[in-house]
């Protein structure tokens, strides 16, 4: 069973930055495609960014140029650097690992407010 633990969320002012981390258990992290998703109150969960096992990245249009996804296979960890945050980025952010099946973390709250 793979476990994913997100961290790094919190309250930040508009224009600020946060860095989310997702630590993954097990020893096959390098085989997983990893992704960050978010869910705002009353809305469906949506894709934010993904990174393949080969390092190719993909972003939602709403975060392009502001967010950066990266992975450190030596640390079994994927990151989401979020800059120029906006109130509409407020959501619970979830990490997902995909290989033979999908695994989800428990989520971390990000609130962008003055």
Determine the number of helices (DSSP H or I, runs of at least 4 residues).
0
Number-wise, the strands total 11
Mean pLDDT: 96
Low-confidence stretches: none
> Helical proportion?
under 10%
Radius of gyration: 13 Å
**Which structural class should the secondary elements be placed in?**
mainly beta
Question: Looking at the structure, what is the overall shape?
Answer: globular
Order of helices and strands: EEEEEEEEEEE
- SS strand fraction: over 45%
State the separation between the terminal residues, measured CA to CA: 40 Å
Largest sheet: 7 strands, mixed
Overview features:
114 residues; four-stranded antiparallel β-sheet; globular; seven-stranded mixed β-sheet; mainly beta
Q: What does this 3D model show about the protein?
A:
The chain is mostly beta strands and 114 residues long. The chain is 0% helix and 51% strand. Strand 4 (33-39) and strand 5 form a beta hairpin. The termini are far apart.
Write the layout of secondary structure elements.
Layout: E1 4-7, E2 10-12, E3 18-24, E4 33-39, E5 46-51, E6 57-59, E7 67-72, E8 77-82, E9 91-98, E10 102-104, E11 108-112
Parallel strand pairs: 2-11
Antiparallel strand pairs: 1-3, 3-8, 4-5, 4-9, 5-6, 7-8, 9-10, 9-11
Brief overview:
It is built from no helices and eleven strands. By secondary structure, the protein is mainly β.
């Amino acid at each position: 069973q793979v476990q994913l633990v997100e961290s790094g969320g919190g309250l930040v002012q508009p224009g600020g930055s946060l860095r989310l981390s997702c630590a993954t258990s097990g020893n096959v992290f390098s085989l997983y495609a990893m992704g960050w998703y978010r869910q705002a109150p009353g809305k469906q969960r949506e894709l934010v960014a993904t990174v393949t096992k080969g390092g190719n990245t993909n972003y939602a249009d709403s975060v392009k140029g502001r967010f950066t996804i990266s992975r450190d296979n030596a640390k079994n960890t994927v990151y989401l650097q979020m800059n120029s945050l906006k109130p509409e980025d407020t959501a619970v952010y979830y990490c997902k690992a995909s290989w033979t099946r999908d695994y989800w973390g428990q989520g971390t709250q990000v609130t962008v407010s003055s």
